[in-house]
Please model this.
Amino acid sequence: MSLQENVIKQISDFLMSDEKGMLITGTHQFKKHRIVMHTINKIHNRKLILLRTNSMGMVKEHLKGLMKRQPKAGERFKLGNNVYEFDSFNTSSTWHKTNHNFSIVIVYPIDAIARGDVSMECIEDLFQFKEFDKIIFISWTDNLVNDYSKFDKYVNRKCVYDADDTKYHERVLETIHTKGL
Model:
């Protein structure tokens, strides 16, 4: 089974389980959130999903090719079989602009939270003021200063999605180690 097949199976198993939270890390920088969305799309139809991201200005970039324009906080977009709303974990004023009930919450990229640049308040807010069945935390670049144990109390399952391309995987690891990220 390839790395991609394994991560799809892990995500699928999680989505079909009674588990509440999942953490996905690994060297596949630009594809982890995409594979989550793709897998959700294969399993679910007409679900309302919240993507809480690092910046509203990055939504279109994170979803390159899927959106023609930049959404506003709380605005709904149909992507595949499901409907997404967006807010920013860096801007608490966007949190109340999204719905209260979601099937799934995706938090991406969690790096700034994991390294302590952003308070865990943005995660605690989800558990205090939103209702959802599943939450998926996704890293962008795993690095030495990220403390993913901050998410332990929220997750039942952890999955690593490293790049299938060995050269790309090694370049990411080399960058992390040489720059001390």
About this structure: The CA atoms of residues 38 and 81 lie 10 Å apart.
